[in-house]
Amino acid sequence: MKILQWAALAxxxxxxxxxxxxxxxxxxxxxxxxxxxxxxxxxxxxxxxxLRSSATLGSGQERMDGTVEVAATDRPDxxxxxxxxxxxxxGDTMGWSLLTGRCGNDAxxxxxxxxxxxxxxxxxxxxxxxxxxxxxxxxxxEYHLNIYENGGNQLSDVVTCANLKSVxx
Length: 169
Description:
Layout: H1 2-21, E1 41-50, E2 63-72, E3 78-86, E4 93-100, E5 119-120, E6 126-134, E7 143-148, E8 158-166
Antiparallel strand pairs: 1-2, 1-8, 2-3, 3-6, 4-5, 4-7, 7-8
C-alpha cells in the first residue's frame, strides 16, 4: 500500500513541476548565427538519408541528418551559412554548395565547393560550419544545398541534400 501512495505522490509532483514550467520560448530561426531581423533567409533540414555503400564507408550504409540556414548579410551579394550535420563519418572533411532548384536537380553550383570553406566532421560524428560566401540569391527563389564526399562537385558525389525554404526572420 505504501508503494502505491509513494507512486501517486511522485506522479503528482512530476505533473505539478511540468505544469509550472510552462512552454519554452522558441529560438528564432537564424538567431544562432547572428542573422539580422528582417534579413532574407532560407532554412532546411537535411533528409535522414540511407547512403549507398562505398569504399569510404565499407560494406554498410549510414544515416545522415542535420540543418542548414542561409541569410543575407549587410553587404550586397554576400550571404552567411550555418550548417550542422550528424553522420557516422568521424574525422571526415566534406564539401558543400548552394544550387538553384530542388534536390536531385543537376544545376551547376552557384559557387564551386572548392571555393568554399569545408565542413569538418569531428570524432563525435558532428560537423558544424558558419561561414560567409559570395552569391547573388533572390528572395522567393528556390535553392538547395548539397553536401559532397571526396572533394567532389557532381550529382554523383552528393551524400545528402536540403531543399531550402524561404523563412520570415
